[in-house]
Automatic annotation (TrEMBL):
GO BP field: response to amino acid
Top-level taxon of origin: Bacteria
Organism ancestry: Bacteria, Pseudomonadati, Pseudomonadota, Betaproteobacteria, Burkholderiales
Residues in Transcription regulator AsnC/Lrp ligand binding domain copies: 20-87
MF term (GO), any: sequence-specific DNA binding
Pfam families: AsnC_trans_reg
Protein name in the entry: AsnC family transcriptional regulator
GO cellular component, one term: cytosol
Length: 112
């Protein structure tokens, strides 16, 4: 059964969702992203600024499976893992940005 990325992960057998940050040295980044492409449980991955090089969202059948998945990537750098307890804001459709409002210049208020 092929599931869409938006399918409920519990319904397809994944009980754990995690967000993982990893710091990867520049020479290993291309190889690291190739490895991630081969891990179906990695749902999203972002190249980011800050302490981490990448942030990814992945699913696992259980904590032992999560540990196995982390074992496939931690060779590329230090990982930080957060297990998702619940979803506060579910994925939602992206709306077109509102048109800019005309610039209405205001006279500065006079100082007392």
């Amino acid at each position: 059964m092929k599931a869409s990325p938006r399918a409920n992960s519990y319904k397809v057998g994944y009980q754990v969702t995690a967000i993982i940050g990893i710091t990867v040295a520049q020479p290993a980044k291309a190889k690291f992203t190739k490895v991630l492409e081969g891990i179906a449980e990695v749902l999203e991955c972002y190249h980011v600024t800050g302490a981490d090089s990448y942030l990814m969202k992945l699913v696992a059948k259980d904590v032992a499976h999560l540990e196995q998945l982390i074992g496939r990537i931690y060779l590329y750098g230090e990982t930080r893992t957060s297990i998702v307890m619940s979803t506060t804001i579910a994925p939602r459709p992206l709306l077109k940005p509102a048109a800019p409002q005309p610039n209405r210049s205001r006279r500065p208020s006079s100082l007392p």
